[in-house]
Amino acid sequence: MAIGRTVDGVPGARWLVRALSIVGCIALWQLASSLHLNLGVVTFRNVPPPTEVLQSAIVLFKSPKLLAHVGSSLWRVFAGYGAAVVFGIAFGFAIGRSRAASDLLLPPLELLRPIPAVAWIPLSILIFPSSEMSMIFITFIGALFPIILNTVHGVANIDRRLIASARSLGGTPAAILREIVLPGAAPSIVTGLAIGMGTSWFCLVTAEMISGQFGIGYYTWEAYTLQNYADIIVGMLVIGLLGMGSSWLLMTLGHYLMPWQRSTVTR
User: Fold this and answer.
1) Are the C-beta atoms of residues 188 and 153 closer than 8 Å to each other?
2) Separation CA 173–CA 165 (nearest Å)
3) Where are the beta strands (DSSP E) in 13-121?
4) Cα-Cα-Cα-Cα dihedral of 264, 21, 70, 206, to 10°?
5) How many CB atoms lie within 10 A of CB 127?
6) In 10 A of CB 125, how many CB atoms?
7) How far apart are CA 58 and CA 50, in angstroms?
8) Is the separation of the CB atoms in 233 and 48 below 8 Å?
9) DSSP letter, residue 46
10) Cα(232)–Cα(212) distance, rounded to whole angstroms?
């Protein structure tokens, strides 16, 4: 391993630059909040400084409510996301591999895809008897479409010559799917899974603000209604960390499961 490089191959200097960029943003935030900077279009008059946010974060992390909020959000995200993975990959493979399935499934999916998550909330409340199921459904809807579209893209872009060659050599449909289609589509599928995880968190926060009693989204919205401005930013940062960590785990798992996609240069 070269000197000055980390385990994943990223130079130590790049990590230093990345860390300094975060420190610089926090410093600018502290300065703008302390001076109550007013730029006309944007004002920091009511924005709490990082020091105040840190104090609120310490209070939250010492509180037993943190586990209840995080646990509720994680359950809703992973329940809805897990269902979206199953249906999304199945639909994506069917649409990408079959013209009949594409004609049958793609038009209604394309019609539903542009509908924002917040527009689904009233209907989900009418469909599901419990608010918990309605929030899980919202996370499911948020993750479903990115997974489907990326799976379709990966499957449809498989080189047809590889499939034809496998068939000429006596490959069965199951073997072709396992040995050619799935490995070839895997990078696009992993990308869709990572995007879907991010949209699941986005949709969950929207749902919890309206229907939740526990959860990070509910905590953030409750802080706004109570005018605890520092808690708002704490909730936002917790959501960001959970979403970033979830996506990172997915990308790391995909990187491990796809050794043929590994590169000596990591971004």
Assistant:
1) yes
2) 12
3) none
4) -100
5) 11
6) 18
7) 12
8) yes
9) S
10) 16
- Bridge partners, 43 (sequence order): 38
Record the pTM.
Answer: 0.81
- What sign results for the dihedral spanned by CA atoms 247, 249, 253, 258? positive
Distance CA 225, CA 202 (A): 20
State the Cα–Cα distance between residues 171 and 29, nearest whole angstrom. Answer: 60
212, 68 Cβ separation under 8 angstroms: no
Backbone angles phi, psi at 106, to 5 degrees: -65, -40
The residue with greater pLDDT, 86 or 265, is 86
Provide the CB-side half-sphere exposure for 225 (13 A, CA). Answer: 8
- Structure confidence by residue, pLDDT tens digits, 50-106: 999 999 999 988 888 888 889 989 999 999 999 999 999 999 999 988 889 899 998
- Measured CA to CA, the distance from residue 76 to residue 96 in angstroms comes to 29
Dist. CA 62–CA 218, nearest whole Å? 18
Indicate the burial class of 107 (C-beta count within 10 angstroms; 0-12, 13-18, 19 or more): exposed
Tokens of 36: 């109550």
Q: What is the dihedral of CA 228, 229, 234, 240, to 10 degrees?
A: 130
pLDDT tens sequence across 215-260:
888 898 888 888 888 999 999 999 888 888 888 888 888 888 777 6
Report DSSP letters for 109-124, one per residue: HHHHTTS-HHHHHHHH
Closest Cα partner for 139 from 76, 192, 72, 74? Answer: 76
Question: Token pair for residue 33?
Answer: 């909040």
